[in-house]
Input
Amino acid sequence: MKVNFTGVSTGQKRIGWGVQEVTITDGAFDKEKQKGTPYLAATVATDDGATHMEKFHLTDKALPKLRHLMEEGLGYDKGQLERDMTEDQLKGMLVGKRVRLKFSGREYLKKDNTIGSVTELGFSNFAENVKIPANSTQLTFLESRDVKKVTVAAEEESQF
Output
């Protein structure tokens, strides 16, 4: 057997900030370790293989976020959503579907005092159906508005 590492990355490529068309590639159900809050971990991928995993908490307060994805992004209607569903039925409604998403960002201060960043979906107005032409999208990304920036001075002051 021969092994060739040409083109093999040691890490996954992550989806960056902005508006992207993605495919939902997986949906896994779990619970938060500390509070036991149930969630659906939905993984999405771009055509070039970049991925993102977003947790959709399955509580009454948080369900509007998942509903927004399913109605605005995937085109499901009230009749399809307002019924009891098993985990498998819900997963089946998501996995393999294409959607346009707006990925926002958030910076944070790392332990070594450098600034790191994460990509995340907002609570609302982040999903759009891909049937809408890309040049007619209502999703807009502005770094000044859609990325929560951290300044080291502000973080240092908040520690005192």
